Amino acid sequence: MRIIVLGFGNVAQPFVKILCEREKELSGNFGLKPRVVAVVDRGGAIVSSSGLNFTRILEAKKLGKSVAADTKLGRPRTTGMEIIEEVEADVVVEATPTNIVDGEPGLSFIKAALKKKRNVIATNKGPLAIALPSLMELARYNGVCLRFSGTVGGGTPLLDLGKKCLLGDKIQSIKGILNGTTNYILARMTEARVQMDDALKEAQAAGYAEADPTYDVKGIDSACKLVILANWLMDRRITIKDVNISGITEVTLNEIVKAEEEKAAIKLIASINGGEASVSPRLLPKNHPLCVGGTLNAVTFTTEFAGEITLVGHGAGGVQTAGAVLRDLIDIKRELSL
Amino acid sequence: MRIIVLGFGNVAQPFVKILCEREKELSGNFGLKPRVVAVVDRGGAIVSSSGLNFTRILEAKKLGKSVAADTKLGRPRTTGMEIIEEVEADVVVEATPTNIVDGEPGLSFIKAALKKKRNVIATNKGPLAIALPSLMELARYNGVCLRFSGTVGGGTPLLDLGKKCLLGDKIQSIKGILNGTTNYILARMTEARVQMDDALKEAQAAGYAEADPTYDVKGIDSACKLVILANWLMDRRITIKDVNISGITEVTLNEIVKAEEEKAAIKLIASINGGEASVSPRLLPKNHPLCVGGTLNAVTFTTEFAGEITLVGHGAGGVQTAGAVLRDLIDIKRELSL
Question: Which of B61, B175, B225, B267 is catalytic?
């Protein structure tokens, strides 16, 4: 299986490492023989149709060099689009940074790859939040797979649980905590009785929040993930424009303390049922399984037969998300063998 | 798909009802056309090679009659073993009551069905706890499927999560609350500061505990489920004899109050890692996702890539477990179509 990797950051790097380390098991257990034939980063590309050896590439990356700096195989200034057009491959892993304004450059990469009948694994939720219904349609039209397990819940298999483990059942509603940063901020306000600004600074110091935390605190990140859950698991063809979003910026320490007194907590909840898709701070009973602390993510599926089931796990992390990309790859391999 | 149902109680009855109600969707979505050709209960059997109509049968059941009382198709005193030998079928659903001493009659039924190359769906954990490694081997040898999703977690897809959603990852350890009755008793002792005897009586009054609660409070039920998890998800070929079991009978209200003061709770935890499989009351931090209340079940899988993920849900219930049997049926249909 020939793989192109677009974007070579904290998910793609552990991903190629895992492919090397697990070579034997992947071949033995799944008949999967992955070969990464091209990697693109900001500086350009590195290409080898016989498969890249990553020992040297990862070392160069550690020193801050582009993959294109390789004297033998590097191609400085070559773009992702050029690689998609020129390099033969079975799967394109789209792992460029998230852009929620226009989804670029990921959106164009995914479209181009699908049109060239490449299977696509996305770890970048921007293009999906903006255009998932049409991207799913494009994949179907071209007879290829589009997978994106790592975009929701990091390594926690929230999408797979809903898709693979509830066959014959019906998901009636989904609600969840889909953003670890805001959950950490609200949890710290609760535990330490600090104002939101201070909790945010703590989150930034601990590496849980970006320098610009807008996407998180405004609820945008949660809304992107809700769009993906709704399309993938409930056949709701919505985009981020269809989500009613309010973030945590208006939540006061006073409200949090009051909630505590009522054995409840204020959490940023993303939810969808038959009707509206929304993201907003809501009261949750402390003893509800969804009421998790720290940077955890959790989603409750309400189904016709199984009732309420809740999956909890880490919502982010490079290795975790790389594991999700690997799951998608195995899934695609199985689909192709059918 | 021709189905034999052995045992016609609170799981099998909703199961056949679901098959009728979902006929169209099962055919459309999964190409599944189930036809129940025989049902056996304590009084005998009812058989029809063209498929049974359940409207009348379920009404008779409500009145306390055996399925064998049907004047046209009933066969009083016919046994499950006779039906397995005589009736042509693709799948046998084994839903007789759990017996942990020798696994009978379920164990003989499952063996006979596998030997006749019937796929088997078990909802009865007794035979599995006693002989799962050899039953899995027998199924493999005869080229048929043995599934048992409903035996652990009721409708909560604990087995499926581990099997289908962690491809390429490695489960390093499993720990969980696998018995709702004991969880309810411990939770009531915590909340209401009552002694165990009183909490048990409450559980019995609420219908959460049997008149004879031995299997639950001694940890036997949890151990059965741990055996199933270990075999299915960790390739550990153990039976209940290999589990170190201590129940909740020695837990005192005093210990529970002391745990509370340390922001922890005493829970009956079943666990397996590289080494020992055990069931015992253990301290759990209150804020751990596994620390669920009421009759809930919860399992934490620790995996190499995804880290700790926890699935929480109802651990029992007729409709819930019937939904799990349906999942198994769809799974078997897919396996057979490959």
Answer: B225
3-class state of residue A11 by DSSP: coil
Question: Which of B168, B312, B322 is facing A326, going by the closest CB pair?
Answer: B168
Q: Does residue A154 sit in helix, strand or coil?
A: coil
pLDDT digits (tens, 9 = 90+) for A47-104: 999 999 999 999 999 999 999 999 999 999 999 999 999 999 999 999 999 999 999 9
pLDDT of A230 strictly over 80:
yes
- CATH fold for the domain made of A161-314: Dihydrodipicolinate Reductase; domain 2 (3.30.360)
**Partners of residue A319 in chain B, C-beta under 8 Å:** 305
Task: Give the catalytic positions of A in this structure.
Answer: 225
Q: Across the interface, do A326 and B165 touch by the CB < 8 Å criterion?
A: no
Dihedral through CA A150, CA A153, CA A155, CA A158, nearest 10?
A: -90
DSSP for B85-151, written as a single string: HHS--SEEEE-PPP-TTT-TTHHHHHHHHHHTT-EEEE--HHHHHHHHHHHHHHHHHTT--EE-GGG
Cα–Cα distance measured from residue A7 to residue A58, given in angstroms and rounded to the nearest whole number:
13
- Residue A325: closest C-alpha in chain B: B168
User: Which value does ipTM take for this structure?
Assistant: 0.96
Q: Among partner residues A164, A320, A338, which is closest to B160 by beta-carbon distance?
A: A164
The predicted-structure confidence for B127-185, as pLDDT tens digits, reads as follows 999 999 999 999 999 999 999 999 999 999 999 999 999 999 999 999 999 999 999 99
Set of chain A residues whose Cβ sits within 8 Å of the Cβ of B304: 323
Q: Tokens standing for A242?
A: 């269809």
The verdict on whether B116 is a catalytic residue reads no
pLDDT(B336) > 90: no
B25, B27, B161, B165: which to substitute to probe chain A, counting the most A Cβ within 10 Å? B165
Q: Do A320 and B326 touch (CB under 8 A)?
A: no
Chain B residues within an 8 Å CB radius of A302:
none
A329: pLDDT confidence band, cut at 50, 70 and 90?
Answer: very high
Could you read off the pLDDT of B10-49 as tens digits, one per residue? 999 999 999 999 999 999 999 999 999 999 999 999 999 9
Q: How many residues does chain B have?
A: 338
The domains of chain B are located at: 2-155+318-337, 161-314
Residues of A with Cβ-Cβ distance to B188 under 8 angstroms: none
Size of interface A-B (CB pairs under 8 A): 144
Inform me whether the pLDDT recorded for A269 exceeds 90: yes
CATH number listed for the domain at residues A2-155+318-337: 3.40.50.720
Of B318, B315, B327, B322, which is closest to residue B154 (Cα–Cα)?
A: B315
| Distance, CA of A263 to CA of A253 (rounded, Å) | 15
> Do β-strands A35-41 and A2-6 pair in parallel, antiparallel, or remain unpaired?
parallel
pTM above 0.90, yes or no: yes
CB within 8 Å: A161 and B166? no
Q: Quick one: DSSP state of residue B69?
A: G
Residue numbers in A near B157 (CB within 8 A): 161, 165-166, 306, 309
